[in-house]
């Protein structure tokens, strides 16, 4: 490989450069600048040479070794010296990549404690059932999809884990957390079938989840929400396994360091694809794992060199590329490249010529070798050098073709897992080289293998032969005739293989995967903690963000739930006024605080601590979401309720990390997501990219998310209390709490907070709308609806309408457009399905009925947000919203621009009354001219209170 422009080639070459079999010339002239610069960053450019003579001696002796013994020898000695220097902790920089061979040499492989033959047969049974399951789901007339090749490439990786490492829920400490590659699910189902956890019929019903009765079939991928006793971690959205597993391992440490649970014996295993590593979320957080020394985390990357369309790095070497990335980030890297049959060849590679060939062969060529015969490989891979040709002279073509990859060699994989589990101080990544579709001739290494879901009878017979399964042709054919697919295979519960696998699982703490909920319900705080929010703000104004943060602060003082709250922010605590918590709650850092803080003399100084409660994620909304997910699912992963309180710029929540929130919901995690600085015109000055006019709509798309947009502090008290009670309390319908996520949008604009009225309508607040004021004058009447930060505009509009236009207005606070719409949709569905029952009336219809006049809604979100309820409003309904991109200006200017300010509400109300024939249409024109609602310059210089976030 000579292509310097390719990063993959560059890193591969780092390891290969000096090995060249041609390299006997005396002057090692660099062939390419990047290639020889393995450790150039570490050269002593500014260190004074205190003994130049001695230095010269060393260099001369190196030169003479190079001249006399050649490059291969010089390279070997240099590498040994580097190794020695590291062993003796001299502190030389690490190499970014090593040769394309196994990290663990045969002589350092541990004793294998299992019975390899039995385990091979177990693997064969699982391989078979997994493939048959998918193929059967794709018989004519069903064709619901699935993946065969992925599991076939990774079977050994999983089985080593299942038989020797993965701890089940009953293991001391509570067991491991295991992230399974999403489309590898067929193998996991197939294993559960052998274990007697799933019925044969369920395998037949792969991907048919409702037509045989809800829950009677099997989900496509790991989905805890669809199979809550089985799956723990939703993984199929590529990239989320990477980041979520890191933050899971970190959260385990957090629980331990905070004294909530001893998690020392628990390990996090994450299985990933090599193609998947291209997702930013896969690699984006690996530095966190290294920095926090998460040696409770092991990643296993199945390097089958292929993704969906074809090769991952045809021209490069994905394993070498990943090795240098992970080493650079500070991980322990274990490569499992070659199976044991290569050991003998490598032992005879005295010139390094074989290693050089391995180093310089691109992945695309290895993929081709996986489908070609031995003669081709002999010619292409071993043919270029007489010494290489000689090395395989004693082997026939068949033997050459069968030289296996490390990821299929059970003992090599075992050695890697064992080393990973024992490694201290760093997370480990195992890079296992495999063939995609391994053991199925029809699939192996084909570019299209990822999507090949059907096996013909011929394919299946060859597959059976390769697995040595006792299934006759007749049985096979009959099964195809009867069911359109091959038969499943189970040797019986008393077969030695099944007894073996059951015994192994028993010794390791029970079946995996398995999801349990062992958390004890929390004793939740009573009325007192909410009393401050009911008082209102008196003469002052406070923003709703402040109200939420105050309640959090008081919750954190509660003896029962206080320690279980997990504040999370991506570098925005100051923005939201939470820096006051730094000195008391402290920022979590497993190393504590190793420096004297610059602001240590201030009252509110920045404090890091091993027991810190606040998770500070740096600027990573994706990381913060991963923490929220780990915390919000601790009740099931750890049997301990934890309450994430993740606060963020609302624009960077659902929009930026919506897929992670979707996965959080699938994982049945709970918690509070606080979308602060919400609204399209409220966060003054920040402009287009920050102005959130739509997150409620995005939130509405997630069925687990309950969104509220409160206007007042007292509403916040009821809403947050309801969140706590629904998620962490018990009810008849949800004895273990409800699997929902509360999303609350709050604002940084100070507004007057009224005292809670004596006859407060708590049901209305929680269901989505309650009446705030009723006009008692005479004349035409309108109903003004708004949410969140819109209330002051509506209040001012109410006054203007009464004082200047003789119109009476009632005002309503809509705490949740989303919940009102959901309830209405659910009512209609109920009525559709219960045609003979008394029809249900949506709450919004009941709440608004009997109130005179048109309904005028105004919102700091796009009109589509309030429009969600249009169909069920009992009367004329019109909406003013902030549609279009935001921009930077004062709030009055922005609100005039979008026609959502008080004056716009007045004009719209008059227009609605005129349309209804209630007032003279000329009044509308009069108001329009008076207020100039089409002209933002009309509010130029109008002062705004409270600045930027
Ligand atoms: C975010 C996301 N994008 C795309 C996909 C579709 N997809 C599923 S598997 C796959 C290829 C996976 O390749 P790799 O990670 O190498 O896994 P392998 O099957 O080879 O083990 C793709 C693109 C997905 N599941 N998630
Ligand atoms: Mg792959």
TrEMBL record:
Its cofactor is thiamine diphosphate. Residues 181-341 form the Transketolase N-terminal domain. Pfam families: PDH_E1_M, Transketolase_C_1, Transketolase_N. It catalyses: N(6)-[(R)-lipoyl]-L-lysyl-[protein] + pyruvate + H(+) = N(6)-[(R)-S(8)-acetyldihydrolipoyl]-L-lysyl-[protein] + CO2. Residues 527-753 form the Pyruvate dehydrogenase E1 component middle domain. Keywords: Oxidoreductase, Pyruvate, Thiamine pyrophosphate. Its EC number is 1.2.4.1. GO terms for molecular function: pyruvate dehydrogenase (acetyl-transferring) activity. Residues 1-54 are annotated as: Disordered. SUPFAM superfamilies: Thiamin diphosphate-binding fold (THDP-binding), TK C-terminal domain-like. This is Pyruvate dehydrogenase E1 component.
């Amino acid at each position: 490989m000579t292509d310097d422009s390719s990063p993959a080639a560059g890193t591969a070459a780092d390891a290969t450069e000096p090995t060249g079999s041609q390299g006997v010339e005396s002057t090692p002239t660099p062939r390419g600048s990047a290639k020889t610069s393995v450790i150039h960053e570490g050269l002593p450019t500014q260190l004074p040479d205190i003994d130049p003579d001695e230095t010269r001696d060393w260099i001369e002796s190196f030169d003479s070794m190079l001249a006399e013994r050649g490059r291969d020898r010089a390279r070997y000695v240099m590498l040994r010296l580097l190794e020695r220097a590291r062993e003796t902790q001299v502190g030389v920089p690490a190499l970014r990549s090593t040769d394309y061979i196994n990290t663990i040499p045969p002589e350092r492989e541990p004793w294998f404690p299992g019975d390899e033959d039995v385990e091979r047969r177990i693997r064969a049974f699982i391989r078979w059932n997994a493939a048959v399951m998918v193929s059967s789901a794709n018989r004519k007339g069903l064709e619901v999809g699935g993946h065969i090749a992925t599991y076939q490439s990774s079977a050994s990786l999983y089985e080593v884990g299942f038989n020797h490492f993965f701890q089940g829920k009953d293991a001391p400490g509570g067991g491991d957390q295991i992230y399974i590659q999403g489309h590898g699910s067929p193998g996991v189902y197939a294993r559960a079938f052998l274990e007697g956890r799933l019925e044969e019929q369920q395998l037949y019903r792969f991907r048919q989840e409702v037509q045989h009765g809800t829950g009677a079939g099997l989900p496509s991928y790991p989905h805890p929400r669809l199979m809550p006793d089985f799956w723990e971690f939703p993984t199929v959205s590529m990239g989320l396994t990477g980041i979520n597993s890191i933050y899971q391992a970190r959260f385990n440490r957090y629980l331990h360091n905070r004294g909530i649970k001893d998690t020392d014996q628990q390990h996090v295993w994450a299985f990933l694809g090599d193609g998947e590593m291209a997702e930013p979320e896969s690699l984006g957080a690996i530095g966190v794992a290294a920095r926090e020394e998460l040696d409770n985390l092991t990643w296993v990357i199945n390097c089958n060199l292929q993704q969906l369309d074809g090769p991952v790095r045809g021209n490069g070497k994905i394993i070498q590329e990943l090795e240098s990335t992970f080493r650079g980030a500070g991980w322990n890297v274990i490569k499992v490249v070659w199976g044991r049959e290569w050991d003998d060849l490598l032992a005879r590679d005295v010139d390094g010529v074989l290693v050089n060939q391995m180093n310089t062969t691109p992945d695309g060529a290895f993929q081709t070798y996986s489908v070609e015969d031995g003669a081709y490989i002999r010619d292409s891979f071993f043919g270029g050098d007489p010494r290489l040709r000689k090395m395989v002279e004693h082997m026939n073509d068949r033997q050459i073709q069968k030289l296996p990859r490390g990821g299929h060699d059970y003992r090599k994989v075992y050695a890697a897992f064992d080393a990973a589990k024992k490694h201290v101080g760093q997370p480990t990544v195992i890079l296992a080289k495999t063939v995609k579709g391994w053991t199925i001739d029809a699939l192996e290494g084909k570019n299209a293998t990822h999507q090949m879901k059907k096996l013909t009878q011929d394919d299946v017979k060859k597959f059976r032969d390769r697995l040595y399964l006792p299934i006759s042709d007749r049985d096979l054919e009959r099964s195809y005739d009867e069911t359109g697919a091959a038969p499943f295979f189970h040797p019986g519960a008393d077969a030695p293989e099944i007894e073996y696998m059951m015994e192994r699982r028993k010794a390791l703490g029970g079946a995996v995967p398995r999801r349990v909920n062992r958390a004890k319900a929390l004793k939740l705080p009573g009325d007192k903690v909410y009393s401050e929010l009911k008082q209102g703000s008196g003469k002052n104004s406070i923003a709703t963000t402040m109200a939420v943060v105050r309640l959090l602060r008081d919750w954190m003082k509660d003896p029962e739930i206080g320690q279980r709250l997990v504040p999370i922010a991506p570098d925005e605590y100051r923005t939201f006024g939470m820096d006051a918590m730094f000195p008391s709650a402290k920022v979590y850092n497993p190393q504590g605080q190793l420096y004297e803080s610059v602001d240590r003399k201030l009252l509110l100084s920045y404090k890091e601590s091993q027991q810190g409660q606040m998770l500070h994620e740096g600027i990573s909304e994706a990381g913060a979401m991963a923490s929220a997910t780990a915390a919000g699912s601790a009740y099931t992963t750890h049997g301990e309720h934890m309450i994430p309180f993740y606060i963020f710029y609302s624009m960077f929540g659902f929009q930026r990390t919506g897929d992670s929130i979707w996965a959080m919901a699938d994982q049945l995690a709970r918690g509070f997501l606080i979308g602060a600085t919400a609204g399209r015109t409220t966060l003054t000055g920040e402009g287009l990219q920050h102005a959130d006019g739509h997150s409620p709509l995005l939130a509405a798309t997630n069925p687990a998310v309950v969104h509220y947009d409160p206007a007042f502090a007292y509403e916040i008290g009821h809403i947050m209390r309801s969140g706590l009670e629904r998620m962490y309390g018990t009810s008849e319908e949800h004895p273990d709490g409800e699997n929902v996520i509360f999303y609350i949008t709050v604002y940084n604009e100070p507004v007057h907070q009224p005292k809670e009225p004596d006859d407060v309508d708590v049901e209305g607040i929680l269901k989505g709308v309650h009446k705030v004021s009723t006009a008692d004058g005479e004349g035409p009447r309108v109903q003004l609806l708004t949410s969140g930060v819109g209330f002051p505009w509506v209040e001012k509009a109410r006054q203007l309408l009464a004082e200047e236009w003789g119109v009476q207005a009632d005002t309503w606070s809509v705490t949740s457009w989303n919940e009102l719409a959901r309830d209405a949709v659910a009512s209609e569905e109920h009525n559709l399905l219960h045609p003979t029952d008394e029809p249900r009336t949506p709450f919004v219809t009941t709440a608004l009925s009997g109130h005179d006049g048109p309904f005028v809604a105004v919102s700091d979100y796009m009109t589509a947000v309030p429009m969600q309820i249009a169909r069920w409003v009992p009367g004329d309904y019109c909406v003013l919203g902030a549609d279009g991109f935001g921009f930077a200006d004062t709030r009055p200017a922005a609100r005039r621009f979008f026609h959502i300010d008080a004056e716009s509400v007045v004009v719209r109300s008059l227009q609605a009354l005129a349309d209804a024939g209630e007032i003279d249409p000329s009044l509308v024109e009069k108001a329009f001219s008076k207020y100039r609602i089409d002209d933002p310059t009309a509010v130029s210089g109008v002062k705004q209170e409270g600045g930027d976030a």
